[in-house]
Amino acid sequence: MNKTLVAEIISVGTELLLGEIIDTNAAFLAGKMRDRGIFVYRKSTVGDNMVRLTAAIKEALQRADLVVIGGGLGPTDDDMTREAIAQVAGAEPYLDEALLENLRLMFAARGRPMPEGNQKQAWLIKDAIALTNPVGTAPGWYVSLAEKVIVALPGPPHELKKMWHEQVEPRLPVSDQHIYHRTIHTSGIGESDLAARISQFTRLESPGIGTYARNSGVDVRVAAVAPTMAQARAVVDPVIMEIEAILSPWIFGYDDETLVSAIMKLLLKAGQTFSCMESVTGGELAAEITDCPGISACFAGSLTAYSNSIKIQAGVAEELIREHGAVSEPVVLAMAQAARKMFKTDWALATTGVAGPDPLEGKMPGTAWIAVAGPSLEWSQLVDWPGTRQMVKNRICRSIFQSFFKLLKEEKAR
Question: What does the alpha-carbon distance between residue 351 and residue 307 come to, in Å, rounded to a whole number?
Fold first, then answer.
């Protein structure tokens, strides 16, 4: 029978608590359950400790219909998820001969004997279904306890994701609620300013509206819950249109779109290309650009001109650097024009600055010039983003992408 499903996620591993590994699995699982209309109300992280893990599972089962556990299915003594589930279920693990044979065959295919410790990965309990793991040694568990379900998945993200899609989703109960959501991406407006402009909507009970500051700008998420997806969409879409009317000068995309993909869309419509010459960002611009699928249709390439000698070889006049310094407006504009010429593109971006931690040319870390050169314009800006080297580079990239997108929109409007 269909019902509203409440879920909890438990991430297992002392390495997560020590900050040695970032827990991307929980974000993946939460998103996938949201898309199925399953409400995730709580997420916890537990170390490799039998007492605490068992307690966490028991507590989660008191609150949730579905408990999804990531990690702790390895072959070592500190992998305790199977033992903890068995204890909660009041069941004795047994060695499943079919699973054991599969493990032996997997190791044989790799030309290695199976270590004795891996036998525990062939354990089952009477209420568990083994979930096949085609890319690893650890099978998962799908455990039915009365009207509750426990799902145990391996910790490595590529194993967890494949098992979720192929083994878990087809088995999940169907929720009687549907969640529809859209995310509006904005750039060039602060979160407090944005929130004030749409405050009449953020006070609504349905749809629920939240604002989130990200590296690329501020996101607005609009979501509604209803018995059917069509009903949920009917609540969300009219509000999206009203918010668009208010925030249109700053909107660059929706949902999975990025600032770079929005730039690509504008360039492709105009039949134009772009390139980069980077100094302070050290290749970060090119890395982020080339992460965008399809970008080769408009991106020609990038030169990391970190030293002054490379800037000069690329076409920046030596006297400009001598007179103004490498971190200056004349030099960054010359870099942008040199990139346009070198790569034969319509547009070019350029960065020069001080990443730190030490000053350069009398300028403090975080000081940078960014520039855009186009068919009929030159644009430059002095930015100041103090922080670590990585923070400085990330913020400079964000600034120039935001500015380039704005310039392209203005060019399109002419």
Answer: 13
Whole-angstrom CA distances from 399 to 100, 370, 402, 404 are 55, 8, 5, 9
Number of domains in the chain: 3
Same domain, 85 and 214: no
Token digits for 118? 């891996």
Q: Is 264 inside any structural domain? A: yes
Residue 290's SS3 state is helix
The CB density around residue 22, as the number of other CB atoms within 10 Å, is: 9
DSSP one-letter string for 214-250: ETTEEEEEEEEEESSHHHHHHHHHHHHHHHHHHHTTT
Q: Please say which residue of 225, 254, 283 terminates a domain.
A: 254
The two tokens of residue 97 are: 């001969």
**Mean of per-residue pLDDT scores for the chain:** 95
**Distance of alpha carbon 343 from alpha carbon 387, whole angstroms:** 32
Q: Which residues are CB-neighbours of 371 under 8 A, at least 6 positions away?
A: 329, 332, 333, 335, 336, 349, 350, 351, 378, 379, 380, 381
pLDDT digits (tens, 9 = 90+) for 172-199: 988 888 899 999 999 989 999 999 999 9
Whether the CA torsion 45, 50, 52, 54 is positive or negative: it is positive
C-alpha atoms less than 13 angstroms from C-alpha of 107 in its C-beta half-sphere: 16
Q: Would residue 263 count as lying in a domain?
A: yes
Distances (CA, A) of 179 to 38, 203, 204, 255, 358: 8, 19, 16, 15, 50
**Alpha carbon 34 to its chain's center:** 16
Overall pTM surpassing 0.90 (yes/no): no
User: Residue 386's domain is classified under what CATH number?
Assistant: 3.90.950.20
